[in-house]
């Protein structure tokens, strides 16, 4: 089995694009809605969509509420009665910031808004579609085949691992704030889902330090190495992963 | 010994006001600058200032960059060559929000902006004044007598303790995001201070669930019970507390 219907944000490049391509290899996947702010500029994604009719492109800006609301309607139309099995909150930015940066509120807020608050709002907006898919099964089983929210997290979400400060180029202070906030809302939501008997799984997966525009060319692993592991891990998600923080091989990471 | 000069935000009521009163009992404290958004409405704080000339009132809105910058100039004038020994980032809000709330980006962002981003910006703006105080001593000793930033944190900053979801009244999801982000920037800053040889301590203290306007009348402890412990703990801060999360009795809390 596999998630039949998938919506992924930030699919125009990097890990998002890699996830689209890797998920197409999974038997049973029927519909992938690939969201990106600028679809016109996403040439490789367009080419993937042309060669596989399961991929649908959708212009969505996760930092814009109206855009999110419109995307729910579009995805609902594409997935129909199946509902949405898997939401991947992948869209994100690094806004370079550090202790020694000139104080700049807008920069810090933008990073947190896009990476954490937007992922929260997308999750809330898409919850009815996820619940629709979850309702196809009885019981309280949790899996990405049934209904799941996967946040593309980061080792920057770990306070225990936050020992090197703002990091290379005085750049990661705000990004770390955003990624811990992402884990926080996922844990609040996971507990609420239990209390509300909503059988939707939510978890956070750290992709590793990946050779993307964001990760830079010095990064440790290729997009392929990262997304192969992430997609395999998504297939293994169960109740033990609810509200957690994991690396791409589903090993627990410390908070 | 004690911090001679102290600046505390959100001093108009609750824990902030309690901290001002409790710090006045500490022998050696010379100057307390009590910041509040609305000084005119802070009647009890005004009365405290009238009865003790060590207390100076300062209108400051931590969510406003110009106001922070002005407050640095005012505090610099009041503390003079001593510099600033202790900054207490106490100002904060709860913006009720939960998984089942109608999605509202502005509410979530406001909570994070006031509680985490503003505390970060205040810390950055006041760092030169803290370094000035720290420079009165040689060596790398860390203490609140020398120079420290104390964030009034929360058990909501702990992912390990975040097991009950959005909490009473579906209210704490955004607040939790803000308080984990506060710990995150403090850990980034602490590591940067080490790398930059800046002997300023930064830490996070959870005051407990306190009977204030924010905590409500059902809360577990009085303001007095909380601030007595917090002030005693501030006096004990050392390098082992750098970048940590502690309860009011300085017991380590899990991330």
UniProtKB/TrEMBL annotation, chains A, B:
Transmembrane segments: none annotated. One of its GO terms (cellular component) is cytoplasm. CDD domains: carb_red_sniffer_like_SDR_c. GO terms for molecular function: oxidoreductase activity. It holds the Pfam family adh_short. InterPro entries: Fungal_SecMetab_SDRs, NAD(P)-bd_dom_sf, SDR_fam. PANTHER family: C-FACTOR-RELATED, SHORT-CHAIN DEHYDROGENASE/REDUCTASE. Belongs to the short-chain dehydrogenases/reductases (SDR) family. This is Protein CBR-DHS-12. It comes from Caenorhabditis briggsae. The gene is dhs-12.
């Amino acid at each position: 089995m596999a998630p039949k219907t998938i919506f992924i944000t930030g699919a125009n490049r990097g890990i998002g694009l890699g996830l689209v391509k890797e998920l197409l290899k999974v038997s049973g996947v029927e519909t992938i809605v690939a969201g990106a702010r600028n679809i016109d500029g996403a040439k490789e994604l367009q080419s993937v969509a042309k060669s596989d009719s399961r991929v649908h492109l959708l212009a969505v800006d996760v930092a814009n509420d109206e855009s999110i609301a419109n995307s729910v309607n579009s995805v609902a139309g594409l997935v129909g009665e199946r509902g949405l099995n898997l939401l991947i909150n992948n869209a994100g930015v690094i806004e370079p910031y550090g202790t020694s940066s000139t104080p700049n509120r807008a920069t810090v807020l933008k990073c947190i808004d896009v990476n954490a608050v937007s992922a929260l709002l997308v999750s809330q907006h898409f919850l009815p579609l996820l619940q629709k898919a979850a309702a196809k099964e009885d019981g309280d089983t949790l899996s990405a085949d049934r209904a799941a929210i996967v946040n593309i997290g980061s080792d920057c979400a770990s306070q225990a691992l936050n020992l090197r400060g703002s990091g290379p180029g005085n750049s990661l202070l705000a990004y770390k704030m955003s990624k811990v906030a992402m884990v926080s809302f996922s844990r609040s939501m996971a507990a609420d889902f239990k209390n509300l008997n909503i059988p939707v799984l939510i978890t956070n997966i750290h992709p590793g330090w990946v050779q993307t525009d964001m990760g830079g060319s010095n990064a440790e692993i290729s997009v392929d190495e990262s997304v192969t592991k992430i997609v395999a891990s998504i297939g293994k998600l169960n109740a033990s992963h609810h509200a957690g923080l994991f690396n791409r091989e589903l090993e627990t990471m410390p908070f």
